[in-house]
Amino acid sequence: MNREETKKILKEKVHEVAEIIRQYTRDQKELWQQIPYLALEAEGVDGYNDRRSVAYETGYLCLSDKSLTIDLLSGDIVDYVTGAPLACDSSVVRCLFDDLPDAQFFIDLYTKEAQGGYLQAYDIGKQIAWREKQRKKFDIKKTYTKRKKGLVFACGYRQ
Q: Is the CB of residue 57 less than 8 Å from the CB of residue 157?
């Protein structure tokens, strides 16, 4: 087999693996849609966290590799470095092959964080009022159904 034939076969195989990973995340759509609500419930209990705030403000969950994110409406894997609505096959395989994104992990994490004790310096009443204000501002319900803001580079925000 020559170099070009080998490259063609490898590209096809990478695409197949990427599609398996994409289908895995899409199959968790109903779980991903719980993340913004739970992220807001956990926010401000033991501090503030960029990953949580991006989740409830934009509907995307930044993954630890810092180049991919999960669209919490659809379960699609998005590349926010390039701005591509779907991450390219090679990025999906390279970044997620050994560490598949698991919605249940984040549900359990944010549920546990929300049930933790408030930091001593926090006024619990103010934290609860702040969270309610955020819930109204971003129209956060238990199941996420619409996006208020879009994702831009480095998990920043755009209107």
A: yes
Pull the structure tokens for residue 99: 């560490």
Please tell me the distance from the alpha carbon of residue 156 to that of residue 79, in angstroms, as a whole number: 13
Angle at 34 between CA 59 and CA 157, to 5 degrees: 15
pLDDT single digits (tens) 109-157:
999 999 987 777 778 888 899 999 999 999 999 999 887 666 544 444 3
Q: Is 2 helix (H, G, I), strand (E, B) or coil?
A: coil
For 100, 101, 113, the CA distances from 135, given in Å and listed in that order, are 29, 25, 17
Whole-structure pTM value: 0.84
Does residue 78 contact residue 86 with C-beta atoms inside 8 Å? yes
